[in-house]
């Protein structure tokens, strides 16, 4: 789990050439990374529990109640059961790609969360282009889903892989335009600066249109309802996950909540002021806001009807793009004034 | 260049075991070929070797969502063979029970159809909770929630329990509120409207030509309902009106069923006002050996899925031939005509709006 | 009404012209000395029904296909073919309900052997 961003690598190389305490630095960074990674996984697990309970309450039933108090250990039991099953790759699949895609996605999500500044003083390296780096890496996710779908070798996976690429093309662009407007408002792409410049007023109040566009695009990227075309439960069986056998399926389930955590953190940092709030620890505020946003996304999943592909594309190109461009103009005006 | 996809017998969305071989051109459907027979139990052949009362068990399991409808159809055929008249009070009781069964069946259809459209089981859970209340009511009368066996030639197996009317009217009030809520919820959802309006159009001529039946036929503008064209039991006295929509797409079929639910609620309330006192119990089991007043019998009944048509040749102890036309059988054969030209994602919306039960298809 | 099989398509076309546009069912009955095939047609607008019966000799069962007159006849004829062994002439017929079964005889006939052993792909593999 020791991977570095480019500026961090540059810093590290410079410090390597100029000081002798590299080992100490590397150790400190590693300890931070591993500790936070474990916390992230615990949090994603907790999000999974919250989702099951919330969807159950909306549907007039209880959700898990038996395993552990309030059903908290239910997900753990599910994961243990899934990991104990045997793994096999279908004959017509490309085994190497199939074996690598899902762990790579999980690693990428956790790495991206590590890159985000969780408190005013952390985040791996103080990166001047943090926002751009995060989104450049975020764009890899649909590609990894595509790889998994193609490598699975059956028609449902291929259809699902095609859909993921099409969706990515339609929804990345409005998202990037909104990010450009945020960069304009904050006058920098450093994530810490973006959060600190929201100290007076959160960006959601300055750019509600931008928030709306970003929210819809983020839902599409996270493949949550109503955009869950990629693993359309009742249509393509499980799309790109059809031939994934049990141990890898654990990763896929876990990945769902990790990505949702990642998405909520990004939205909160960009629009809701990150860790600002009185009283308690900054990281507490960040996590609470991310939780509230995640709960809203889960409620959306329980009640929305899935959209069809052509309507999705029309939404992306004909509705979100113009709104994102309008938002960009508004941000430019705010920037100039 | 067309590819063939196999939407195999085990699939979360085909309401049972149905295999569809779909020929696709990109994302557009060029042809659909259903392969059925996974649930074929040979009811017609078995019926020839069982006595009349032993056959009721088989008939109920033809449609496991609304078993009372086939129970009633078969017992009506036996009655006509024997020349037995249904008692007055029993006519009203049968009407009430059949309409309750229809509401329960349509509630299940609503849940599974919205499940197919991608609604993550929420509406499904809610409609099942409402359906449970109706099953409770039917349990108080018949003793079972699913396979009732409560029809006897001449009447029903026992009269209604004393507080049946009060309970039913309470449940009907509750369900009426819920149905209005579901309608509002679905029809104000832009995505639902887009996924059902204009999808899967079946024109009036094709509907009659291909033999569609039930809400599929009425959704295409044909005003034919067995309850009003060939009235039986108390439907004509209660002023039954068939619900017809004229467009023929999935939304029309959905709307027909929602309207039918409301009509059923109205009929049940009317029936409770007009029900005569008297005896409603039918002939007990051991007397069922038809004296063969009519040897050849034809019965049409309106099950929630469409018209079930029974043609029976009655011998002294067992039916010589029992031939049943089930509505889902002929509704499924329409899928090729309806689905040509739509996208793959629409196929499931169309299947959901046809309301198929695979046991009904395979007979 | 009882007609001969030669006049089947004519009669049905005539009935369709008179307004009986809806085919309800095509039923087969095995009276041991003959096999009857009944066509139930219905006039939806005037609410009338009509039955056309064709009697066939059990050893010479060949019927013309009525699909050109009533499109709904497709699946009914397929079940007639597999359940009674009636050949339908005029188009390709495939079994509908019993695709994988390869036993002998026609199930709904009275002289069908109950419980006769039959082979399936799995049992062939097991025996081999």
Key descriptive features of the protein:
heterotrimer, B: 363 residues, three-stranded antiparallel β-sheet, 15 helices, C: 128 residues, alpha/beta, two-stranded parallel sheet, 3 helices
Q: CATH H-level name of chain C... which superfamily?
A: NADH:ubiquinone oxidoreductase Nqo5 subunit
Mean pLDDT of chain A: 80
Total domains of chain A = 1
| Distance, first to last CA of chain A | 44 Å
Count of individual helical segments of chain C: 3
As residue ranges, the low-confidence spans of chain A are: none
Helix amount of chain A: 55-70%
Q: What is the multimeric organization of the chains shown?
A: heterotrimer
What can you tell me about this protein's structure?
The complex is a heterotrimer of chains A (about 325), B (about 375) and C (about 130). Chain A has one domain. The model of chain A has no long low-confidence stretch (mean pLDDT about 80). Chain A is built from 13 helices and no strands. Chain A is globular. With about 375 residues, chain B is of the alpha+beta class. Chain B has 15 helices and eight strands. A three-stranded antiparallel sheet of chain B has the order 1-2-3. Chain B has a three-stranded antiparallel sheet with strand order 6-7-8. A two-stranded antiparallel sheet of chain B has the order 4-5. In chain B, about 55% of the residues are buried. Chain C is α/β, with parallel strands linked by helices and about 130 residues long. Chain C has one domain: 2-Layer Sandwich (Beta Polymerase, domain 2). A four-stranded mixed sheet of chain C has the order 1-4-3-2, with helices on one face. In chain C, helix 2 links the parallel strand 5 and strand 6. At the A-B interface, helix 12 and helix 13 of A face helix 4, helix 5, helix 7 and helix 14 of B.
């Amino acid at each position: 789990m020791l991977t570095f961003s480019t500026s961090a690598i540059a810093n590290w190389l410079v410090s390597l050439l100029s000081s002798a305490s590299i080992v100490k630095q590397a150790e400190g960074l590693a300890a931070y990374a591993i500790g936070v990674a474990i916390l992230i996984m615990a949090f994603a697990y907790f999000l999974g529990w919250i989702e099951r309970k919330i969807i159950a309450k909306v549907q007039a039933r209880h959700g898990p109640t038996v395993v552990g108090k309030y059903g908290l250990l239910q997900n753990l039991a599910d994961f243990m059961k899934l990991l104990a099953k045997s793994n096999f790759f279908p004959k017509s699949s490309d085994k190497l790609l199939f074996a690598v895609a899902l762990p790579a996605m999980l690693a990428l999500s956790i790495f991206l969360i590590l890159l985000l500044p969780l408190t005013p003083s952390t985040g791996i390296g103080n990166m001047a282009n943090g926002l751009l780096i995060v989104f450049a890496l975020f764009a890899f996710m649909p590609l990894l889903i595509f790889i998994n779908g193609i490598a699975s070798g059956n028609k449902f996976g291929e259809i699902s892989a095609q859909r993921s690429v099409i969706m990515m093309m339609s929804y990345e662009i409005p998202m990037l335009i909104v990010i450009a407007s945020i960069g304009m408002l904050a006058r920098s792409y450093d994530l810490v600066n973006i959060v600190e410049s929201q100290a007076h007023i959160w960006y959601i109040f300055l750019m509600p249109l931008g928030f709306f566009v970003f929210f819809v695009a983020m839902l599409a990227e996270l493949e949550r309802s109503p955009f869950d075309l990629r693993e359309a439960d009742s249509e393509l069986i499980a799309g790109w996950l059809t031939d994934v056998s049990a141990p890898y399926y654990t990763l896929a389930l876990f990945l769902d909540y990790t990505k949702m955590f990642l998405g909520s953190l990004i939205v909160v940092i960009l629009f809701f002021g990150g860790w600002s709030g009185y009283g308690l620890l900054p990281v507490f505020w960040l996590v609470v806001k991310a939780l509230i946003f995640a709960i809203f996304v889960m409620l959306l999943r329980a009640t929305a009807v899935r959209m069809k592909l052509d309507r999705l594309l029309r939404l992306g190109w004909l509705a979100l793009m113009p709104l994102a461009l309008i938002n960009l103009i508004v941000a430019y005006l705010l920037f100039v004034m | 260049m067309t590819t063939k996809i196999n939407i195999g017998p085990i699939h979360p969305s085909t309401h049972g075991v149905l295999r569809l071989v779909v020929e696709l051109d990109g994302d557009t459907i060029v042809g659909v070929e259903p392969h059925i027979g996974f649930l074929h139990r040979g009811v017609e052949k078995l019926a020839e070797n069982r006595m009349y009362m032993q056959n009721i068990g088989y008939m109920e399991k033809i449609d496991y969502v609304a078993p009372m409808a086939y129970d009633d159809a078969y017992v009506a055929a036996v009655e006509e063979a024997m020349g037995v008249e249904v008692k007055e009070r029993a006519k009203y009781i049968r009407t009430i029970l059949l309409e309750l069964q229809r509401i329960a069946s349509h509630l299940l259809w609503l849940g599974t159809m919205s499940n197919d459209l991608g609604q993550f089981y929420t509406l499904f859970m809610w409609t099942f909770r409402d359906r449970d209340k109706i099953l409770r009511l039917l349990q108080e009368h018949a003793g079972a929630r699913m396979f009732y066996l409560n029809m006897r030639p001449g009447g029903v197996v026992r009269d209604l329990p004393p507080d049946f009317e009060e309970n039913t009217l309470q449940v009907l009030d509750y369900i009426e509120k819920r149905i209005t809520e579901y309608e509002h919820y679905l029809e104000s959802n832009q995505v639902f409207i887009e996924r059902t309006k204009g999808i899967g159009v079946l024109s009036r001529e094709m509907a009659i030509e291909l033999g569609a039946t039930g809400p599929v036929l009425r959704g295409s503008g044909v005003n034919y309902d067995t309850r009003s064209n060939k009235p039986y039991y108390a439907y004509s006295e209660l002023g039954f009106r068939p619900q017809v929509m004229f467009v023929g797409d999935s939304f029309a079929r959905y709307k027909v069923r929602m309207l039918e639910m409301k009509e059923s609620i109205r009929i049940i309330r009317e029936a409770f006002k007009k029900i005569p006192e008297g005896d409603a119990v039918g002939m007990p089991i051991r007397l069922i050996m038809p004296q063969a007043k009519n040897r050849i019998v034809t019965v049409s009944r309106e099950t929630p899925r469409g018209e079930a048509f029974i043609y029976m040749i009655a011998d002294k102890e067992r039916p010589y031939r029992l031939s049943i036309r089930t509505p889902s059988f002929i509704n499924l054969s329409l899928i090729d005509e309806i689905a040509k030209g739509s996208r793959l994602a629409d196929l499931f919306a169309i299947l959901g709006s046809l309301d198929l039960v695979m046991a009904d298809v395979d007979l | 009404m009882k007609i001969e099989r030669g006049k089947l398509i004519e009669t049905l076309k005539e009935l369709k012209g008179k307004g009986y546009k809806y085919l309800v069912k095509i039923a087969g009955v095995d009276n041991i000395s003959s096999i009857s095939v009944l066509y139930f047609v219905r006039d939806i607008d005037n609410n009338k029904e009509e039955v056309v019966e064709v009697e066939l000799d059990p050893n010479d069962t060949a019927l013309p296909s009525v699909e050109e007159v009533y499109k709904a006849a497709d699946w009914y004829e397929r079940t007639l073919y597999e359940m009674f062994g009636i050949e339908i002439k005029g188009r390709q017929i495939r079994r509908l309900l019993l695709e994988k079964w390869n036993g002998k005889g026609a199930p709904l006939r009275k002289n069908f052997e109950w419980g006769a052993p039959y082979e399936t792909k799995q049992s062939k593999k097991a025996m081999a």
